[in-house]
Amino acid sequence: MLAVLMITAMALLASPVYSATMNPQENVNLYTGNKLIIDSNQQSIKSVVVRGNLTAATLSNNAYPSKNFTLTTNSTQLYTVDLLLSYQAPYTSEIVITDPSSGARTQYTSYFVSGGDLNLTIFASFQAAPSTGPNTPLGWSSFYGWVSQFGGAFPFWIKILYAVLGAQFAFVGYRWIKFEDERRRIEGHLPPLDRGNKVYLWTEVVFRTLVAGFAISLAVMIGEVLVLLIAQYLFFVNLDLVSLIDILRERASSASSI
Fold first, then answer.
1. pLDDT digits (tens, 9 = 90+) for 224-233
2. Bridge partners for 51 per DSSP
3. At 109, is the secondary structure helix, strand, or coil?
4. Which of 43, 106, 200, 201 is 20 to 30 A from 29 in CA distance terms?
5. Is 132 inside any structural domain?
6. With contact defined as beta carbons under 8 Å apart, do 70 and 59 qualify?
7. Has this prediction a pTM greater than 0.70?
8. Residues 6+ apart with CB under 8 A from 76
């Protein structure tokens, strides 16, 4: 009995040991329109299984075994590609991403197999390509969109401030320009204001409006910072930097309720 056990153990030790099949997984991110290519230097691609929206995809129509496989789509999709590669002799396989629009070719990764099977799983995510700029000529809609985005960058009380200052300076500026024109007509030693002079004076009114609004908003913001500093270092109270118009609104609502 002991002799039988020793013979069995020697037979097991003498038998060749084969390595397990590799099962690598790769996450590949592509842009829509790119091509996912699995390329091999031998006829090693035995079978391919693709899961996903196949109606939106374009697959290579090869007879297997084959040296390559190609997958592409023009929409945002997610595909799972399972490939079985097998060859008796050593072979090399690589995952390549190509961009047909620019002709760029990028090697994602590659494998060297001394012989045998390779079960490769690829999770291919096709995302929308980044925008390179507007494809349509700029129009009034684009200008209005830019104005709305620019106005959204300012707090509400700044908009109210410039609206009030604009109305006030427009009223005063109109009366001032009208007075200057009538004074020139009455005195006679200076010619009346022409269109160019009026445009220049209105430009000065707009400039003074912007300067006055900037000065007032700067003073308000500096006052807010001073209030915070005094509350923090003198009364040891931490306050948030809130807008002055919000504080005034709360005070007004509480006073009206009383």
1. 788 878 877 8
2. 80
3. strand
4. 43
5. no
6. yes
7. no
8. 32, 126, 127, 128
